[in-house]
Amino acid sequence: MTTKPFPKTAFQYLLYECLCPFKWTFLICIFLVAAESGVYNLLNWFFAGLIESLKSGTDEQTLKHVLYITAAIIGCDVINIFLPKITLMHRQKYFYFPLQEMLYGRTLSYIFGHSVNYIINKQTGTLLAKTNQVTGIQTTLSTIITALWSRVSDIVLKVGLLTIINVWLGVLFIICAVVVAIVNYYANKSSDRLSKMQGKSESLYTGWLVDTISNIRTVKQFNRLNYEKQRLSVLLKQYIKIKAQTMLVWFTSYTGVGCFVHICSLSVLTFAVYLWSVAKINIGDIVFVLLTLNGGFMWLMELCVLYRRFENGLSYIQAGLDVFNDPHEIQNVANATELKIKKADIEFKNICFAYPNGQQIFTDFNLKIKAGERLGIVGLSGNGKTTLINLLQRAYDIQSGQILIDGQDIKTVTQQSLHQNIAIIPQEAVLFHRSIRDNIAYGNSDASERKIKQAATIACADEFIKTLPQKYDTIVGDRGCTLSGGERQRIAIARAVLRNNPILILDEATSSLDSEAEQKVAQAINNLLGKRTVLAIAHRLSTLKEMDRIIYIENGKIIEEGTYTELSTKTGGKFAKLWQLQQIEEEK
Predict the structure, then answer these.
(1) How high is the pLDDT of residue 192?
(2) Mean pLDDT on 395-418
(3) Do 377 and 311 lie in a common domain?
(4) Residues 6 or more apart from 448 whose CB is under 8 A from it?
(5) Which end of the chain is more exposed for a tag (fewer CB within 10 A), N or C?
């Protein structure tokens, strides 16, 4: 999986990520566009030559010359019919489409390479918006190739042909072009800040909108529709206001540059008429100058618009790059090996860990779990239970010490092979908006229908699945919303059964269920345990009766250890006190 961050600036991203991998295809696109400009200018050149030839009379030599020029004009027209289509087809098929495919793969790979904690701390809508900003490069590239480069190559060719007619005519055109470019640059420089603000404002609005839609059930349940509408309205007004300011600046600069361009055009035309008056050029040359000014200075005037479009494109991309500049928190070490499990012994050896905010959780913590042992983990919230299983999955890296599985340090093995050997059933099972069959087979896509149903039976899920209209083809809705909590848990357990990992983590898998659902899920879990190495975090202590050993964690340290019977009858023990409180609550 890709771990290299993206370039920090939009221009570097455009150059190194988009153009370098397709440099030859890009150069061919550049050549074809320049060829289009060349044919167009040659057409004007021949047309001016035709006017000059017709002025010379109707003798045989002149008529032959007229016929040759007419044939050249027809040839240019025929090329003009086919060349733009060939250019477009090459650009789309061999450049835009492959580039788009590569960028989507690159961005998704980079996002998926972030840790789970990084991703869940970002808004889903924001990640989606930024991905679209970074991959939506086609408009910017079109601006470069078919707009900016087309105009630039056309102007260069016009300068060359004007220079052939008269050197000073070409020099004057160059001077005007340079001055217009400078005026254009400074006229648009003032809107750079607004362009960046517009990109950020659009990203913020899109992220909030997607977040609201994703959580529409909660929004309606808490009667917060008006709040969300007002918030979105404020963000939208802010975006529209910035966009309007950007448009005003663009209009002002475009009008000013347009006036200046027309002054330059009149200057060149006046100079051309002067050259004709002193017999330095002929009528055909005047015709070519007129055609050139009609196209050339219009292109210069359009550079103002194209520059704004290109600048907006870069600002749009820049607004999305921050997520792709953040380095991956957890990375495979160089030459990482595959985790190979024979017994599934687990050892936490002298580990020290503190969260990025400085909160210290473990200091020289030690714990050994034998292969096939069922370990219950108990303690009050915030004392390290969940952190311990997160560290085992390498959601975070420890500052010192080792976490070993069958003697292999999990830092030295690939993350993929680590996750491949660990199954987890969380407190709240989240399912995909897919069929029950797809959700069960998610961890083993090659599983047969028989094995899927067998896993569902072990998980006590087959009984309720059969009552559904579409049975295993039933779509469970967003995050499994059409199923009850107990049914979702049993689907998650079936998924773990089918995956058949040597290590199983139960993260308070029954704490959010009612008594009847808890009983069915507990039965499903007991069917699942088998000979696996199990780590079970439980809020309800009664669910730990089947554990071989239980540890009580407080302030990142093991303060009690023993079987369920030993700890529940220990006088003055922390576990016993908590057990007694739960007994009183259950009686009430």
Answers:
(1) 61
(2) 84
(3) no
(4) none
(5) C
Res. 165: pLDDT tops 60: yes
- CB 41, CB 151: distance < 8 Å: no
Enclosing H/E stretch for 360: strand 360-369
Residue 120 pLDDT class (50, 70, 90 cuts)? low
Main-chain phi, psi angles of 138, to 5 degrees = -60, -40
* Residues 129, 244 within the same domain: yes
Asked, for residue 3, whether it belongs to a domain, the answer is no
- Tokens 């994703």 belong to 214
- Measured between alpha carbons, how far is 361 from 388 in angstroms, rounded to an integer? 9
Q: pLDDT tens digits, residue range 489-530? A: 778 878 877 777 788 888 776 655 555 555 656 666 666 566
Residue showing tokens 């079109």? 142
Q: Sheet with 549-554: list strands edge to edge.
A: 422-425, 503-507, 533-537, 374-378, 549-554, 557-562
Work out the average pLDDT over 421-426. 80
Residue 443: which CATH number?
3.40.50.300
Domain boundary among 296, 325, 354: 325
Amino acid residing at 303: L
Same domain (yes/no): 431, 309: no
Is 349 within a domain?
no
Q: Are strands 557-562 and 374-378 parallel, antiparallel or unpaired?
A: unpaired
Q: How many helices (H) and strands (E) does the chain have?
A: 23, 10
For 543-558, write each residue's pLDDT tens digit.
Answer: 777 788 888 888 888 8
| Crossing angle (nearest 10°) for helices 449-458 and 515-529 | 120
CA dihedral 215, 220, 224, 226 (to 10 degrees): 110
- Helix (H), strand (E) at residue 548: none
Kindly write down the DSSP assignment for every residue of 434-500, as one continuous string.
SBHHHHHGGG-TT--HHHHHHHHHHTT-HHHHTTSTTGGG-B--GGGTTS-HHHHHHHHHHHHHHHT
Ranges of H-type helices in 278-351:
283-320, 322-325
Provide the domain count of the chain: 2
C-alpha to C-alpha distance for 274 and 281, rounded to whole angstroms: 9
User: How many whole angstroms separate alpha carbon 537 and alpha carbon 186?
Assistant: 64
Q: Which of 263, 294, 325 is the last residue of a domain?
A: 325
Phi, psi of 377 (to 5 degrees): -120, 120
Distance CA 275, CA 268 (A): 11
Residue 481 banded pLDDT, cuts 50, 70, 90: confident
Same domain, 425 and 541: yes
260: domain range?
10-325
8 Å CB contact between 567 and 560: yes
- pLDDT score, position 2: 46
One domain, residues 300 and 377: no
- List pLDDT tens digits, range 238-293: 778 877 777 777 777 767 777 777 777 778 778 878 887 887 877 777 777 777 77
Whole-number pLDDT of residue 338 = 82
Q: In the predicted model, what is the mean pLDDT of residues 537-547? A: 77
Task: List phi, psi (to 5°) of 504.
Answer: -125, 130
d(CA 411, CA 404): 9
387, pLDDT greater than 70: yes
Per residue in 61-70, pLDDT (tens digit) is 767 767 887 8
- Dig out the tokens for 59 from the structure: 């003798």
